[in-house]
Write a structure and sequence with these properties.
- With 469 residues, the chain is an alpha+beta fold.
- It contains eight helices and 14 strands.
- The protein has helices spanning 6-51, 140-193, 217-265, 272-302, 315-333, 353-370, 427-437, 462-468, and strands at 56-59, 62-65, 77-81, 87-90, 107-112, 115-127, 130-139, 310-314, 338-343, 348-352, 376-383, 387-394, 441-447, 451-459.
- The strands form four sheets. A five-stranded antiparallel sheet has the order 4-3-7-6-5.
- Helix 5 (315-333) packs parallel to helix 6 (353-370).
- The longest helix is centred in the middle third of the chain and has 54 residues, at 140-193.
């Protein structure tokens, strides 16, 4: 039941209650109708017998009957008896073979074979010493059979009515939930492309009361959602602008700190202790400068102001060159990490050369920093079907499963796999943006205690690149 959509659930609920209500109404209606039919048959029988008095006369001691007495009117058969229950005139229906005693003024139901009969007797005094009895007989079974035909016809039509009810309920539910579908689609698009400028646009379509408020709760929800998106967009714009402004403002003091450190280090009168402290300040200032540069990069990317200068370049050579530079940096760090490169020959791709190198730098430096001492980092670049596939793997401590979804977030550090070092927590955010800006993607597979493998994919064919853009 939980797997069914809301449309199906509401349709089933609507159909169930409609069918239940219809069954209850039909049951009551059929019960009352059956009683009404029997009462109507009984009433017609009694009235026909009472009216037959006009057809019976006594002239000169002789009974005379009008021809209407012999006619079967409203399925009522009339017969005339004397006081000794001797049959005089009239007609008896076929199949009524019994001769019940006279019961003046009382209607009885008498079963005979497969048929039930209503019998009504009424006495008429034609003279002071002469009384006759008129007996009316009509079939109850025939009346009930006509009613049963109606019941069977209703039973046959009932499934069709239930189907029509379900279809009408489904159309009504589907139409009612269309705004919900549009809300869901808008949210999915916002999640896919992180575009908070999107709006549902249903706030003005719903019916409104005199106060101007939506009477339709779903349209009201859509309008509230649009207002929330507008507030979020404004808040994020302020945050992006703040990040950009702060980064710009910090560049100057950091540059001054670096310049002053360089000038102080040129002083030959510094003691060893003083030189060590200035070098520490310089190193931290350079880390700050790198972080500011990354923040500016991401800020321009968020605002759509980070340009891509694509050109067809030999990415195999770029990869090998980047690996060699990172090996020199790893040797200088003294952690004994060995970086190997396995790149296909002369792989060409239309990429921004600077950003491609930055992507590799971030992935390799991340692997070196969080890999194990004297470990290995392997870099590969291969050409697949219409795409370029690159991997950077290490044999470090790995990343826990709960941390994997968050490693692309800015400033995120997992305790086990992303602690320590001079990394700011912005490198992988930049890697993700660069890959997606080129129409590609990046993913990671990691096993705690065994290492991680980062894989990036770029489109290699020109028509794919145009479609991505």
């Amino acid at each position: 039941m939980n797997r069914l959509s809301l449309k199906i659930k509401l349709t089933l609920l609507y159909t169930f209650f409609m069918v239940l209500a219809t069954c209850a109404v039909l049951a009551i209606l059929f019960s009352l109708s059956n009683r009404e039919i029997l009462a109507s048959v009984q009433s017609k029988l009694e009235r026909r017998v009472q009216d037959s008095s006009d057809d019976i006369t006594l002239r000169d001691g002789e009974l005379r009957l009008d021809s209407d007495f012999y006619s079967v009117t409203q399925d009522v058969y009339l017969s005339l008896y004397d006081e000794d229950m001797y049959f005089l005139y009239g007609r008896v229906p076929y199949g009524f073979d019994v001769q019940p005693e006279i019961a003046d003024g009382r209607t009885r139901r008498i079963p005979e074979g497969d048929t039930d009969w209503y019998v009504y007797d009424m006495s008429f005094r034609l003279a002071e010493d002469y009384t006759v009895y008129v007996r009316g007989i009509t079939s109850v079974t025939d009346a009930e059979e006509s009613f049963n035909v109606t019941v069977r016809f209703a039973v046959i039509l009932f499934p069709l009515m239930a189907l029509v009810t379900a279809l009408i309920g489904y159309r009504m539910t589907r139409r009612t939930l269309l705004p919900v579908k549009k809300i869901t689609a808008t949210v999915q698009k916002i999640r896919a492309d992180a575009d908070l400028s999107r709006r549902i646009g249903l706030g003005g379509e719903g019916k409104k009361d005199r106060g101007g408020k939506n009477r339709d709760e779903i349209y009201g929800l859509a309008g509230t959602f649009d207002d929330m998106l507008e507030e979020l967009e404004t808040a994020f714009k302020r945050e992006k602008q703040f990040t950009s402004d702060v980064s710009h403002e910090l560049r100057t003091p950091v540059s001054v700190i670096l310049a002053q450190c360089s000038e102080c280090l040129e002083d030959g009168e510094l003691t060893g202790r003083q030189r060590e402290q200035i070098l520490l300040i310089e190193r931290k200032a350079r880390d700050m400068a790198g972080m500011i540069s990354q923040l500016l990069f991401l800020s321009r990317a968020d605002q759509g102001r980070q340009p891509l200068h694509r050109e067809w370049v030999n990415v195999s050579e770029l990869t090998q060159m980047t690996v060699e530079e990172q090996q020199l940096l790893a040797d200088a760090g003294g952690n004994g990490v060995q970086i190997s490169c396995r790149a296909g020959d002369d792989i060409m791709a239309c990429v921004d050369e600077t950003l491609f190198i930055r992507l590799l730098d971030n992935l390799i430096s991340n692997a070196v920093s969080y890999g194990r001492k004297n470990g290995r980092v392997e870099v590969s670049l291969l050409r697949g079907q219409g795409e370029i596939i690159g991997t950077v793997s290490d044999d470090g401590s790995g990343i826990s499963e709960e941390d994997l979804p968050h490693i692309w977030e800015r400033f995120y550090r997992a305790d086990a796999s992303r602690a320590g070092g001079s990394h700011s927590g912005l490198g992988l955010s930049m890697v993700k943006w660069i890959a997606e800006a080129h129409g590609g993607c990046v993913e990671v597979q990691s096993t705690p205690g065994k290492g991680s493998v980062f894989t990036f994919r770029f489109p290699a064919e020109e028509k794919q690149i145009k479609n991505k853009n």
